[in-house]
Each structure stands twice: as C-alpha cells, then as structure tokens.
C-alpha cells in the first residue's frame, strides 16, 4: 500500500462517523447521570496489544549504542502499563475513544505496514489530535498550596486515542526505574535547595 | 449494649481534648505541659511517627498507578477527588473514605477529611501567616458579621509562642499587611521569581516574598529534642515526613505532650455527645463510640477542648442536647453551624518565561512564592470587600511537557531528558465573608453507621467572592504581563465550592454578645464555660491567609487561660 493511500484510508476511518455500537454506548453514557462505576470491562486482544506496543515504542524507542543503550518503551513494560492504567484509572468515555482509535488503526492493518507508512499514520494522528485538543482548552492550573493540575474542558467524548497513548507512554516510561535512571540524574534525597547554573548538556534532575 | 460506667478513676481526667489534629495536638501539648492530666480522643486509626508513613521512602516506580487516582479510589474518596490527585497511592492513606463517612449536600460542599492521628496536620500546606491588625477589625468597620472579641495584640505573643515551637521558615519583610513572625532561615526564590519580585516592586509597589512554611530549614534545640530534623527538600511532605521536618501533631505537639507523661490517647473513638449536668451548669464529660466494636463509654473531666475540626466540633455541639440546651450545647444564639467560611481558590494564571535558560535548581522546594494582599489595602479601593494573596512559583518544565508537545521518536525522547523552559503560575487565596445563611446542620433522619446524625451542608460563595475571583484572575494576568512573561493563561475553575480550600471555619464563632456568638474571647462556650472550642469553628472572620497558625495561637491562648482559671477555681 502507498503511504499516501494508507493515510487517506486512516483519515477516512478516523474522520468518519462512529460505528453504531459506539454511538449506542455513548448515548447510554450521556443519558446516565451518575459517573461510570468502578473498574469497567476494558481489555485488548493480542493483536491490539501488539499495536499498542509498537506505537509506544515509536513514541519512546530504544536508542543509543550497544554499550550505552537507553531502553525503549517496550523494555520497561510500558505496553502492559498502558492497558492497566486505562482499565484502572479511566472510565467508559476514554475506554470508548481509545478503542475507537485503536480499532481504526487495526482495520488499516498497522502491523503490516513498513516503517515509513507507520510514521505517516502516527504523524497524521498527531495532527488530528492537536485540532481536537485545541477545542478542549487544555490549561495548566494550580490548586491549594502545592498542587499542579491540568484542566481540560469536559466534553462527553473521551480523550482521543493518540493523546491517551502518548500521555500514558511518557508517564509509564519516565516514571519507570529503567526510564528514570537512563534519562535523568536521579536524586533520592537532595538534602539541600540551591539555585544553580546548568552545565552544557546537563540532564534534568528526577526525585 | 450500653455500658454506662460511672465516673471511676480510670475514666476521669483533668481535661479531655477531642481530636488530635492541628489544634487538638496543640491543646494536648499546652495542657499537659501546664500540669494537667489529659485524655485525647481521636475518632480515626492510630498512625505512629515515622514508621507508619508507608509511602514516605518509596521510589516513583513503586507506585503501580504512578500518582494517578484509580477509578475505585475516586469513587471511595469522592469528595477528596474534587481537590485533585490526593486519593492516589502516595497520599491516599492519609485521607478519609468519603463513602464510609457520608454527608449530605443541600448545596455542594467539598469536605476533605483526615480521620487518623494528626488529622489534617499530616498533609496541610504548611503555609503559616499571621492575621494582621485589620483582619481583626474589618468586620466591625464594614458591618459584616460580628466583631472579633480580641485584637491582634491579644494574639501576638501566642503567634510567637506557636511559631517558635512549630518552626516556620520565612523572610521578615516589615509589612503591616503580613506581620513578621519568629522565623527560621528563608528558602530561596528562584531566578525568574527574583526578576518578578523586582518588577512587581518597581511597577506596582507590591511586595513578593518566599512562602512562610512550617518546614525546618534550621532545626533549633527544642526541635531536635523531639526528634525533628532538617528539611531534605524532597517535597514529598504529603506522604508523611520521616525526618519530622515539617510540623504535624505527630512530629511536634504529641511527642511534646508525651514527654510530660500526662497524655493518654484513645484511637478509633468517636465522641458522639458532650454530657451536660444541668444542676452543676457545666459539662462533665463525653459519651463515645468505638468505631470498630460499636461499644459505648463515658469519660469525665473538669474541662473539655473541642478540636475535632470546624465542622465536626460544631456537629458535636449540635448533637449534645439537654433540657438546658435543647438545640445543642451552647446554641442559644442559633449560630452553631452557621457562618461557614473558607478560602476560595482555583483561580489565577500561568505563563511561560523567556530566558534564564542557564538557571536551574537543585532540590525540590516544599514551598511557594507569596504575594501578600494588595487589594482594599492602603489607597487601593475595589468594588468588593477584603482581598486575597497569591501562592505559586516558577519551575522548569519536565518530561511531561511532551504530552502536549508535537513529536515522538528518538530526538523527542532525548529532548525530554533536559529541563524545558521556565514556566510560572500562581493562584489566589481569597477571603470569604461571614454569612449566617452559609451553614451546616444535622439531619436526625439520616444516621451514619454509628447512629450519629449526618451533617447537611447548605452553603455557597456570595457575590463578594464571585466578584473578587474575576479580579484574582485578571490581576495575576496583568502582573505576569508586566513582568514580560508570555503565553499568559488565566483560569477561574467554575467547580470550586466552599470547603475546597480545606480551610473550613466559622461554625462556632467568637464574639462579645452571647446572643450573636457561641464563644467568648477565650474560646469558652458562653453558657458552659468549661467547654472550649479552639479549632477553625471559633473564627469570626477568615482573612485571606492560611489559618492554621492562627488556630494554634488561639488554642495556646485558651489553654493558658483555662489552666489559670482552674488554679483559681474559677472553672
């Protein structure tokens, strides 16, 4: 398949209407006044798990040379983390929007694409998501004395697939032991607080 | 089974303190140090310092959900979740399950609780500011609520007393609006914050200082004696501090009280009622329920300090009915449960800061910058009353900037290992006016699992708060613009209700006239003088500064008065 054609197909699928079951589920959710209860049934097929793993690895790939390798998303268990987090920490709207995006990519036979085709799909997804997130007015805010928040305008539809998988890949990777130690200067107990000058190429501190 | 044990020796103390949090701890310390045998009663489970801070030394990757709140926790701690991510695996253990401790919202109220040893002192923001002189005078001048029966000068020595013991890091500024206290060395402002401070002074004549925070920047001999050590700048305070560097009842007042060997503590014990003796015209003790076994018991004392937290102290008064006090102990005025105040927050602005790219910080500051109130102060006059202060600060972006940024892959990954640009953000803490229609009461038809009537909240922000919020957002944006910051974004979260500031107060206010107030100038219930209420319930107005240090100062002052009165046989 030509890259151009792949993107066109994906665009049609992602830009098109929801499938009938998705619509029904969303209507049901909008009608219900109470938040969705507890842990709901969310699970991925083996094929879907493979796609999630490939996309997570595309976001944070293994890098470096053999002697100085920096692990990638797959090395530190990000794919399983994403599935677990969606199941445990998200409710039905995000389960639906994640599955909607993932199903489209599955139907476009993502796993059979070559590297440049995959890249094209993901770049397309990112641009589409950007437009959608803009409408949601993402704001960084503060609460109380010591708590940072991200405010996102509430709409009935869940966050888009790309936003969810990118956020959870970064969270899973940069808070994993392997990800932290390879990426940052990890300090368990700083013991002091100082204004300092950054040295060229210096990594961030992680605590 | 109703075990009605008579007033035997084992159940009789000089003083009973209800609650072990910010003020309960301080009451116990003061009363035991002055020679009284004290029983402290805590409704929640026991936590021991520091071995029960389960998460204090965990690594980021030890938390399965990495700081996020699971759907299950969000349901169990539904009120808590309105604040943010406190109900996560790092800090959730220090908050109360809302499902098991229900309350009724006639109008929405964000009630965030901490039923365990130390109460909310375990995770307070530690910001410690004195009320100023005007804070005590504004109600009378402006005809809002009632006048405070005390003035700044009455509390001044007790502020010093509390600050010394607690240990407050801060910078003296010589400002009337934010009186200086007894401070340990201040924490640094960061380079863009110093720039901001300079511009604010030059363009607006508004001072900016570093937060005054109850973290030990330099422990004194009386701190180390209690096992408290210097702050390690991890900024993981909310997990419980294994160094005892931030002040809590567990690290400070309870150990001090224990040194006297005159403190007994009961855990898992809910005080359901104060026992009033109509003949003696005084309270004789309390009736309690064990939260696990449901067994009831009575305890007796010469004086009773209510420090259960503003809402629960008021509920306890309302639930203590007798032929003398048919509407609840000390409620002749019908003011118990009314005049709920808090600080309104969740409004401010954020921006990006250009430059300063070779400036960075080692360590994590458990603190913020502070912009003291400048509205309706000096020559400034607004369409609303009172004012607000800002808390916030500058930091360099971390890896999470990648979530909203374009890109993925090897270069993207590499870029996120370096500090990003500086950003700055601060949010307001606004004064809430006293209003008798903002109230809580008990619904005797709805009981919790211990048979205690549930609290009903019927309160909301008024016009003054709503008008002030617009100014909080706009002034923050204006100041950021003046400092040359970019991408300025204001926010005014619409879903903030009373309570979310977790500074709930006012439900048994102090005053001179028993017809319009519940407590007198020494926090005694007007017509039942051996009951003292010294938590947030006592507040007659709210100021805009964080209130804990004021609650503690009122507590120490009342305890001093109580012990002197006992010695003079006046109580």
From TrEMBL, chain A:
It comes from the Bacteria. Pfam families: Gluconate_2-dh3. This is Gluconate 2-dehydrogenase subunit 3. It comes from Pseudarcicella hirudinis. The lineage of its organism: Bacteria, Pseudomonadati, Bacteroidota, Cytophagia, Cytophagales.
UniProtKB/TrEMBL annotation, chain B:
Keywords: FAD, Flavoprotein, Oxidoreductase. Residues 230-343 form the Glucose-methanol-choline oxidoreductase N-terminal domain. It comes from the Bacteria. GO terms for molecular function: flavin adenine dinucleotide binding; oxidoreductase activity, acting on CH-OH group of donors. Its cofactor is FAD. Residues 436-554 form the Glucose-methanol-choline oxidoreductase C-terminal domain. InterPro entries: FAD/NAD-bd_sf (IPR036188), GMC_OxRdtase_N (IPR000172), GMC_OxRtase_C (IPR007867), P2Ox-like (IPR051473). Belongs to the GMC oxidoreductase family. This is Choline dehydrogenase. It comes from Pseudarcicella hirudinis.
């Amino acid at each position: 398949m030509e890259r151009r054609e792949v993107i066109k197909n994906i665009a049609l699928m992602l830009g098109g209407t929801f499938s009938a079951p998705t619509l029904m589920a969303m209507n049901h959710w909008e009608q219900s006044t109470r938040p969705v209860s507890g842990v709901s049934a969310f699970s991925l097929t083996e094929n879907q798990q493979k796609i999630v793993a490939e996309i997570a690895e595309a976001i944070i790939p293994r890098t470096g040379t053999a002697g100085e390798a920096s692990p990638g998303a797959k090395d530190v268990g990000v794919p399983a983390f994403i599935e677990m987090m969606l199941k445990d920490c998200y409710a039905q709207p995000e389960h639906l929007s994640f599955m909607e995006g993932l199903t489209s990519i599955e139907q476009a036979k993502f796993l059979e694409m070559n590297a440049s085709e995959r890249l094209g799909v993901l770049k397309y997804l990112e641009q589409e998501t950007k437009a959608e997130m803009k409408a949601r007015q993402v704001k960084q805010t503060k609460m109380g004395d010591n708590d940072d928040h991200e405010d996102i305008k509430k709409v009935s539809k869940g966050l888009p697939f790309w936003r969810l998988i990118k956020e959870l890949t970064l969270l899973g990777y940069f808070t994993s032991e392997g990800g932290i130690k390879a990426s940052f200067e990890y300090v368990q107990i700083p013991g002091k607080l100082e204004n300092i000058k950054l040295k060229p190429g210096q990594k961030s501190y992680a605590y | 089974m109703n075990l009605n044990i008579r007033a035997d020796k084992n159940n009789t103390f000089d003083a009973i303190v209800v609650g072990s949090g910010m003020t309960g701890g301080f009451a116990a310390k003061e009363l035991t140090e002055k020679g009284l045998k004290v029983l402290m009663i805590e409704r929640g489970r026991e936590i021991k310092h520091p071995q029960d801070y389960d998460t204090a030394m965990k690594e980021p990757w030890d938390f399965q959900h990495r700081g996020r709140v699971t759907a299950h926790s969000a349901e169990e701690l539904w009120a808590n979740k309105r604040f943010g991510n406190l109900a996560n695996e790092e800090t959730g253990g220090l908050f109360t399950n809302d499902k098991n401790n229900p309350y009724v919202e006639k109008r929405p109220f964000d009630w965030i609780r901490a039923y365990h040893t130390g109460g909310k002192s375990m995770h307070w923001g530690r910001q410690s500011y004195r009320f100023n002189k005007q804070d005590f005078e504004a109600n009378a001048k402006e005809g809002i609520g009632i006048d405070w029966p005390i003035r700044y000068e009455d509390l001044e020595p007790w502020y010093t007393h509390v600050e010394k013991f607690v240990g407050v890091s801060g910078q003296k500024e010589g400002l009337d609006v934010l009186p200086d206290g007894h401070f340990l060395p201040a924490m640094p402002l960061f380079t863009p914050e110093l720039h901001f401070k300079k511009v604010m002074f030059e363009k607006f004549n508004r001072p900016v200082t570093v937060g005054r925070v109850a973290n030990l920047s330099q422990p004194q001999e009386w701190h180390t004696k209690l096992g408290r050590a210097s702050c390690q700048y991890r900024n993981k305070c909310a997990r419980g501090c294994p160094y005892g560097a931030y002040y809590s009842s567990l690290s400070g007042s309870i150990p001090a009280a224990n040194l006297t060997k005159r403190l007994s503590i009961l855990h898992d014990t809910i005080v359901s009622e104060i026992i009033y003796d109509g003949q003696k015209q005084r309270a004789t003790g309390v009736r309690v329920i064990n939260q696990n076994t449901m067994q009831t018991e009575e305890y007796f004392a010469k004086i009773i300090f209510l420090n259960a937290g503003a809402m629960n102290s008021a509920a306890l008064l309302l639930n203590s009915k007798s032929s003398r006090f048919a509407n609840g102990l000390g409620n002749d005025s019908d003011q118990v449960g009314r005049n709920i105040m808090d600080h309104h927050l969740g409004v401010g602005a954020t921006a990006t800061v250009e430059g300063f790219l070779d400036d960075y910080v080692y360590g994590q500051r458990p603190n913020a910058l502070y912009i003291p109130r400048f509205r309706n102060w000096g020559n400034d006059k607004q369409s609303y009353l009172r004012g607000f202060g800002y808390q916030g600060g500058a930091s360099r972006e971390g890896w999470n900037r990648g979530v909203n940024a374009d890109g993925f892959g090897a270069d993207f990954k590499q870029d996120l290992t370096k500090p990003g640009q500086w950003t700055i953000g601060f949010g307001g803490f606004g004064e809430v006016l006293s209003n008798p229609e903002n109230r809580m009461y008990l619904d005797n038809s709805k009981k919790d699992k211990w048979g205690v009537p549930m609290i009903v909240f019927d309160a909301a922000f008024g016009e003054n708060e709503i008008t002030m919020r617009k100014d909080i957002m706009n002034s923050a944006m204006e100041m950021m613009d003046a400092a040359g910051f970019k991408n300025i974004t204001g926010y005014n979260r619409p879903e903030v209700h009373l309570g979310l500031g977790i500074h709930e107060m006012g439900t048994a206010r102090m005053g001179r006239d028993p017809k319009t107030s519940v407590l007198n100038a020494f926090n005694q219930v007007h017509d039942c003088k051996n009951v003292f209420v010294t938590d947030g319930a006592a507040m007659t107005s709210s100021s805009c500064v964080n209130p804990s240090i004021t609650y503690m100062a009122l507590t120490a002052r009342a305890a001093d008065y109580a012990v002197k009165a006992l010695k003079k046989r006046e109580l």
